[in-house]
Amino acid sequence: MTDPYSVESYKPEGRMLIDGELVWAANGKTFDNINPANEEVLGVVADGTKEDMQVAIAAARRAFDETDWSTNHELRKRCLLQLHAAIEEEKEAFRHELVQEVGTPIMLTYSAQLEWPLEDAFTWPAMMIDEFPWERELTDNMLMGVPSKRKVRKEALGVIGAIIPWNFPFEVTANKLGPILATGNTVVIKPAPDTPWNATRLGRIIAEKTDIPAGVVNVVTSSDHLVGEELTLSPDVDMISFTGSTRTGMRVM
């Protein structure tokens, strides 16, 4: 009988997602993913460099500037629902993977680690694409005493850098990614080096099972925290979505 928590049972993804392609680090390096419960090596993941991160940022910038992702509501809704369905198909693999790399009790995967965010992190933003008032007319038709007609139009912001902690990695990633995509932005995800596989699995699912255009979602893994800092330094990144320690948050600021 196969051990449900063996690596063979959930087949992890070690590659990053950059510009629609599943790739290893440009320099070919990897780093170990460690089970925190027993300190055994589970396997390896791409050890991305600053150069890999810069390529990912450039891909996200192009996807925002040169495709209709930011304005195509129907495409975004379809892609979010595809992503939700594809994750559901691999839910048990996510569960076993989270137990191994996070060290979480399996009980928590039936709540905040997996089941709760999966329930609505993508479906609720997808539903809101149809319901959100993207454009509205101002009812006050006088401006400085002059009759006027004015509208407020909500538009996507641009490229988002999403920096993820190790403690609830899937939950935080999903609850960032759903709204980021629903509102028409592109994203570069930098998972914590302690828990990379749930993010790389998500990248593989996006590449293989959704119509999300190349560059809209990028996942860059690295053992070097300063690779994530590239997101905060790049003029092509419009916003940072950070969850983590106060000390790191101060450095991000």
Average pLDDT reading: 95
| Rounded Rg | 19 Å
Name the structural class: alpha/beta
CATH class reads Alpha Beta
The name CATH uses for the topology is: Aldehyde Dehydrogenase, Chain A, domain 1
**Total beta strands:** 12
> How is the largest sheet built, in terms of strand order?
11-10-9-12
Q: How is the biggest beta sheet arranged?
A: 4 strands, parallel
Topology of this protein?
Elements: H1 7-10, E1 16-18, E2 21-23, E3 30-34, E4 41-46, H2 50-66, H3 73-89, H4 91-102, H5 106-109, H6 115-120, H7 123-131, E5 135-137, E6 142-143, E7 146-147, E8 151-153, E9 159-163, H8 169-182, E10 186-190, H9 197-209, E11 217-219, H10 225-233, E12 239-242, H11 246-252
Parallel strand pairs: 9-10, 9-12, 10-11
Antiparallel strand pairs: 1-2, 3-4, 5-8, 6-7
Task: Tag the structure with descriptive keywords.
alpha/beta; Aldehyde Dehydrogenase, Chain A, domain 1; 11 helices
Overview of the molecule:
The protein has helices spanning 7-10, 50-66, 73-89, 91-102, 106-109, 115-120, 123-131, 169-182, 197-209, 225-233, 246-252; strands at 16-18, 21-23, 30-34, 41-46, 135-137, 142-143, 146-147, 151-153, 159-163, 186-190, 217-219, 239-242. 44% of the residues lie in helices and 17% in strands. Helix 2 (50-66) runs parallel beside helix 10 (225-233) and helix 7 (123-131) packs parallel to helix 8 (169-182). The strands form 5 sheets. A 4-stranded parallel sheet has the order 11-10-9-12, with helices on both faces. Strands 1-2 form a two-stranded antiparallel ribbon. A two-stranded antiparallel ribbon has the order 3-4. The chain is globular and about 70 Å long. It has one domain (7-252): Aldehyde Dehydrogenase, Chain A, domain 1 (3-Layer(aba) Sandwich). The protein has 11 helices and 12 strands. A hairpin with a 2-residue loop joins strand 6 and strand 7.
